[in-house]
Amino acid sequence: MRTLRAPHPHLEIQRSGAGYVGLLRTSYRDGDKVRHVQCGRITDYSLAQLKLIQASLRGAVVAVGSADAPCSVGSREHGASAALLALARDIGLDTAIYSRPSEPWVKDCLAMIVGRVVYAGSKLALSQLWRDTALWELCGVAGPVDVNTHCYAAMDRLLERQPGIQRTLARRHLQGSTLVLYDITSSYFEGTYDASEIVTFGYNRDGKSGHEQMVIGLICAGNGCPIGVEVFRGNTQDASTVPGKIAEVREKYGVADIVFVGDRGMIAYGKGLEAATAAGMQTVSALTHRQMVKLLERGVIQMDLFDAQAVAEVWDPEQPGLRYCLCKNPQTEAREQATRRALLERTRKGLDALAAPKRRTPPEKTAAKVGILLSKTKMGKFVAWRMEQGRLVWSFDEEKIAAESMFDGCYVVRGDVPAVRMDAQEMVASYKKLTAVEHAFRTMKTVQLELRPVYHKTDDRIRCHVFVCMLAYYLMWHALQRLAPVLKKHDVNPQTRWSIDYVIERLKSIRQERRALAGAEWYECTKPDAEQREMLAALGVTL
Predict the structure, then answer these.
(1) How far apart are alpha carbons 135 and 508 in whole angstroms?
(2) 285 closest CA partner among 424, 438, 413
(3) What is the pLDDT of residue 431?
(4) What confidence score (pLDDT) does residue 63 get?
(5) For FRET with 284, which of 49, 345, 365, 481 sits at 20 to 30 Å CA-CA?
(6) How far apart, in whole angstroms, are the C-alpha atoms of residue 173 and residue 484?
(7) Coil, strand, or helix at residue 37?
């Protein structure tokens, strides 16, 4: 087994006929023996010239500007790609993709996953970077990269393996009694996708009306580690996805004793709650504003129970075993009040302008403009208006505004988890962990991995593209876990503050240079500086 390879070539000079030849070699240790690998031959040089080259390779001084001095004839990114590939293999991502990670298509998938973290962009753009990054060569592709072979064909194999990969990740991260976090988001498309059944119009959670979209559901472990992702049609409702996710966790992943945590309206009622109850699964969620109002009307909760300092716990007499945890967030309260004031002021100015037009306007046009204004500001529930003698008469319903403002910053976490297993503080904390899923969506969609724009046109390729982004976030999540101590250490001083983006950019500056000397060429990596060495040590990888 090869255990040691010399980092730089050395030159051996041998007589060849009437002259001399230089054999450019590297050495490695095979057990007790030292073996050599010949990299190239240097001919047509005098003995003195060959000795000069030999001396320079041994580190002897060569005059600057001399024709015999080694020079750099090319450079490409090495550090970030090599570090993340090493991390991917260290956490077993390659074996999760396939049991034989040496398969070429598995290496191609690793290149796409690491490339999504380091470069984002399209698969075609990544394939065209083979001259500028060592990523593809590190994954076994030397020379030009064919996007059809090394990207699209590998994506087809990866999509076939998705159920098995997600089962593997579930076995690793959903051990025993644990939390399962689930949430959905939407991602919009631009252009035409006639060949897709996924891409369609629906409720857009990003406020991008007028665009077709897809819906994405993500399952994470309680610590935020992504486990599985699924793509739904763009008009899919939140709660309708829950029964399938519960079945997936129980049947495909083989995890039964869990607490399923979902966002408002997802498992608090309707299909989601019915599916969780039928499966005997305990749940944690939050109530919608309408549900909070109903509890208030029934007398189950009182407004004076909401406190920013402590969590108040109440039980529903009509539903034994169901607990409500009443919480208040002062920051959210201030933000909601400021937002409402701004929207009400915008509504007031708009209605005043319509009530006193500069020119005579038909009543039906004025009424239509009122409807458009109220739909934009979402303040129609607080406005009473009518047309009298062709003019707009309106007023705010101050009682409704006051009633609404009482709930500013207030939220209710509901759950059927027994108190002996999870107290009120723990139940609220488990619901707050959904922010980890929100962080995953934000990272996948915009911040780092740039899920959109989606350049693929068929459903299978769209699904696999989303899956590649999830696996890229899985790699990033592990990187962040390892980097957390040094990120925290460097967060104290704003001038030296680190982030995952900063780490990747610094590692990208570790270059692989192509060196030339007397007709011979070899690759040599720049040495990491102190800061880069600290990053590599935190990641637990060596270059």
Answers:
(1) 11
(2) 413
(3) 92
(4) 57
(5) 481
(6) 19
(7) strand
For 426-447, how does the pLDDT look when each residue is reduced to its tens digit (9 = 90+)?
Answer: 999 999 999 999 999 999 988 7
pLDDT band at 481 (very low <50, low <70, confident <90, very high): very high
Nearest residue to 288 (alpha-carbon basis) of 273, 308, 309? 273
Q: Which residue in the block uniquely carries the two structure tokens 């966790």?
A: 249
How far are the Cα atoms of 2, 131, 246, 431 from residue 150, in angstroms, in the given order?
A: 29, 15, 35, 41
Which of 388, 381, 346 has its CA nearest to residue 367? 388
Separation between Cα atoms, residue 270 and residue 291, nearest integer Å: 12
**CA-to-CA separations, 504 to 264, 466, 483, in angstroms, rounded:** 36, 22, 11
- 174-287+417-454 CATH fold: Nucleotidyltransferase; domain 5 (3.30.420)
Q: What is the mean pLDDT of residues 240-255?
A: 83
**Residue of 270, 267, 236 whose CA lies nearest to 249:** 267
What are the pLDDT digits (tens) for 504-538?
999 999 999 887 765 556 778 889 999 999 999 99
Token pair recorded at residue 364: 């039906």
- The amino acid sitting at 106 is V
75 neighbors 513 (Cβ within 8 angstroms): yes
Q: Which SS3 state, helix, strand or coil, does residue 12 take? A: strand
